[in-house]
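#onboarding

Welcome to the new folks! Below is a worked example of what a typical request in this channel looks like: someone posts a single protein sequence, and someone else replies with the predicted structure as tokens. Don't worry about understanding the tokens yet, we'll cover that in week two.

Example request:
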Amino acid sequence: MGVMNASCESCRGHFAYALYHSGFSDCAYAYCDSCGRLAMFDAWAENVPANTKLKVHGPIEAHLEPLISTCECGGSFRSNAPPRCPLCSAPLSADAATAYIERNAEGTAKGWRWDRTWSGIYCMDVEKKAAKNPWLAQGT
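Example response:
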């Protein structure tokens, strides 16, 4: 799925997003608890900390959070944080997102349905600002 348009249920502002299937991407993900930026963790990245068991195809596990760099906004990437509106910073509702996600998804016409959760196999990159493999440097 390419970049699509959405609207925030809190401020009614419009923003762009891309939806990723973490199974097809072979990654895990987390969202910043402050700004909602997506962090994607590639299973095959060279900077995965040694002896880390990265479970892919969904959100990162909470015990990995101390191994992740802070977001550029100063917030922390968390296993249970939701994406946020880039305009008002309100958490985006997975239920409310159903309207625009299913409207924009080509598979909807063939029966695909959004799973209505931010902790499933799909992750959302709001405004194409995802952080890629933001692990702390080993030894820090």
